[in-house]
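Summary of Year 1 activities. Much of the first year was spent building the evaluation harness for sequence design. The harness presents a backbone, in tokenized form, and records the residue chosen at every position. We chose the following record to illustrate the format because it has been used consistently in internal testing since the harness was completed.
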């Protein structure tokens, strides 16, 4: 799928099984933001951690300067 620059989007695994997402970004550079935002896992099959709403809000706030540099606007989750 191609998502135009700055288009609001999110991904949800709606199955009951674990899934992986392969994301390719062009032009390069945004991977630096993902690396700062993400947490390294011990292996490719390690389940992703879960975070409380408060933890997510704290992490998004901490990365606000990096998001602005990459022209990213993190929208609040839909309830």
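For this record, the design step produced the sequence shown next.
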């Amino acid at each position: 799928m191609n998502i135009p620059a700055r288009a609001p989007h999110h991904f949800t695994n709606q199955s009951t099984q674990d899934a992986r997402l392969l994301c390719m970004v062009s032009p390069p550079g945004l991977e630096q933001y993902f690396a700062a935002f993400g947490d390294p896992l011990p292996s490719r099959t390690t389940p992703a951690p879960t975070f409380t709403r408060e933890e997510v809000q704290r992490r998004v706030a901490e990365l606000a300067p990096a998001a602005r540099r990459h022209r990213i606007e993190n929208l609040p989750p839909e309830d």
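The chain has a mean pLDDT of 85. Quantitative recovery figures across the full test set are reported in Table 2.
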